[in-house]
Design goal:
alpha/beta, 8-stranded mixed beta sheet, 29% helix, 15% strand
């Protein structure tokens, strides 16, 4: 590993980065963000040490494409991995590429949901077992351990055909069977039979596993193993599968919460009156229909809260470990999620659309350096996007942000108490061409696309395929019940936000091989190397440029 310590532009203190992502963690299911029942003292502990960003938005409300934006620092329509299973093309620069250039190693511990561009790698002759090939196949990370966590097993085999390090761990602990992830970690027992976590009716049962062997503690153990041997400066992306479904959690977390802790669903009958066709299709799908049943919410939400409580306790283990090993003083800690979960709000389940419950995520950043002392325990309301992580980390590592490639913006000015010029709106995209809603609506793949523009008050959702837009005013209607685009009273706001979307669409996103500095250095270079077209008599340019082309003519050979 590199021994050249990266230094921040504002100081000489070396820095490591612990970039922790939870899967499907809602922004409002932490005590520091106002949840009335769920206590998360360790998330709160990091928030008290750092900055909590209260308006953080993902670039796509689906696991794979959201993560690819987080890892590349680029919008979905720039990197192209537009849904789960869509490969990230070979050559797309990622967090690891940028950080290694800045002298910092970059490691994966957990999930990425990344699909490798196997065809592209074969075309270029990149062997998956080579260092370059392995990084291309693993989203630019060096892998400490990768486990995407969903080891579903059906008549046609496993959902994920890679090896499961977690399943191997369970087998080493005596959990028998072909797939102990399904039989123990994500199932309870009822009358001697497997009570699978895939069935909501079992969400209130304890998973049939020792708590310390369940997924979240297992990944915490692997993280501590990594840090024990790591030489800095390093970035470790610790990516937990939970609180993502299956919704089942081991004892004692399975009964920490009950029906009295389940909030009433945030939904209104007006949402079902002449809904936007895409929204209407999603409200009618299987997962939404399930979460419209109160008995499902009564089972699932306490389990979801238990999974979050377990995540918080394991975060506490990591924080205590950093304290005990004196690493807290040189480790930046980032806590976030790849998207949220409707949990029955807006008549929906899962994610995939652009209400706050789905597209807004928690983001807490602790920077141990003295330059951040003035913002400890504060809340920043700036519009932040998940693509801001990579430039933040590059700047924190002392590198130069490649802003001709990275479309996000470094958060370091906010963390250091400055008030930088900032974006006026946030963008999120969703390609649902592979989803059932596109089939229900009879759409071609190119038309099954959605775009969100949010300026901090008004949220516009544009749908390709000839549909009308949706519009919400989050000041007057923070619950997002009333779609203002059903009428014509807010056409001015619609037009203004379409102007923002058009401006964003004209961004320079694909000129990634030459920076502005490169281009400025090129200006005039050809003239100094003798390329001087379109001159009349040479007086148009400095004399030194034509010295090779004036003077006595050489004698021509006979």
């Amino acid at each position: 590993m590199s021994t050249n310590w990266a230094v921040a532009k504002t100081g000489s203190q070396r820095l490591n980065i612990l970039y922790i992502m939870y899967d499907q963690l809602r922004f409002d299911y932490l005590s520091c963000t106002g949840h009335p029942h769920l206590k998360t003292p360790n998330f709160d502990r990091v928030a008290a040490m750092g900055v909590r960003f209260s308006n953080a938005y993902i670039q796509s409300p689906i696991c794979g494409s959201s993560r690819m934006s987080s890892y590349t620092g680029r919008y979905v329509s720039s990197h192209g991995a537009a849904n789960n299973g869509f490969p990230l093309r070979v050559g797309e620069l990622t967090m690891g590429d940028h950080l290694r250039k800045a002298g910092m190693s970059c490691w994966l511990i957990g999930k990425t949901h990344m699909a490798a561009d196997a065809e592209g790698m074969a075309r270029l002759g990149l062997a998956p077992d080579s260092m370059i090939g392995a990084r291309q196949a693993e989203c630019g990370f060096d892998v400490w351990i990768r486990d995407d966590g969903l080891w579903g097993h059906g008549p046609d085999g496993f959902y994920d055909e890679r090896r499961s390090p977690y399943n191997e761990f369970l087998k080493s602990k005596g959990y028998e069977g072909e797939n102990p992830w399904a039989d123990f970690a994500n199932a309870g027992v009822e009358d001697g039979q497997i009570a699978s976590g895939w069935m909501f009716q079992n969400a209130d049962k304890p998973a049939n596993i020792r708590e310390e062997h369940s997924e979240t503690p297992w990944l915490t153990d692997r993280t501590i193993d990594f840090i024990d041997q790591a030489e800095g400066p390093w970035c470790a992306h610790v990516s937990y599968i939970k609180p993502h479904w299956p919704f089942i959690v081991p004892a004692p977390y399975h009964n920490f919460y009950g029906a009295n802790h389940v909030p009433a669903p945030l939904r209104h009958d007006v949402e079902r009156e002449d809904p936007h066709p895409v929204y209407g299709a999603y409200m009618e799908n299987a997962i939404s229909s399930a979460f419209q049943r109160e008995e499902v919410r009564q089972k699932v939400i306490p389990a979801y809260m238990g999974l979050i409580k377990q995540c918080d306790d394991q975060l506490g283990r990591l924080l205590d470990y950093l304290d005990q090993t004196d690493r807290m003083k040189d480790t930046m800690i980032v806590l976030t999620s790849d998207h949220g979960d409707y949990l029955g709000d807006h008549w929906m389940g899962e994610k995939e659309l652009f209400h706050e419950q789905s597209v807004k995520v928690p983001l807490i950043v602790y920077d141990p350096r003295p330059e951040a002392d003035g913002t400890r325990g504060t809340v920043c309301d700036a519009l932040v996007e998940s693509i801001d992580m990579v430039p933040t980390f590059v700047e924190a590592a002392g590198g130069k942000v490649a802003d001709h490639i990275l479309e996000g913006r470094s958060l370091m000015p906010w963390i250091e108490g400055q008030t930088p010029a900032w974006r006026d709106y946030a963008i999120s995209e969703y390609d649902y061409s592979a989803m059932g809603a596109s089939v229900k609506l009879g759409l071609s793949p190119k038309d099954a696309r959605l775009f969100m523009v949010f300026d901090g008050r008004y949220k516009l959702i544009h749908a390709e395929g000839g549909f009308r837009p949706m519009l919400f005013d989050l000041v007057q209607d923070p619950e997002e019940f009333h779609d203002l685009a059903k009428g014509d009273a807010h056409q001015a706001e619609i037009d203004r936000l379409y102007g923002c979307l058009a401006e964003w669409g004209r961004r320079l996103s694909q000129r990634v091989t030459k920076s502005d500095d490169d281009i400025q250095a090129m200006r005039g270079r050809s003239g100094r190397r003798g390329i001087l077209p379109f001159l009349y008599d040479g007086s148009e340019v400095p004399e030194e440029l034509i010295q090779k082309y004036v003077g006595p003519a050489p004698k021509r050979p006979d």
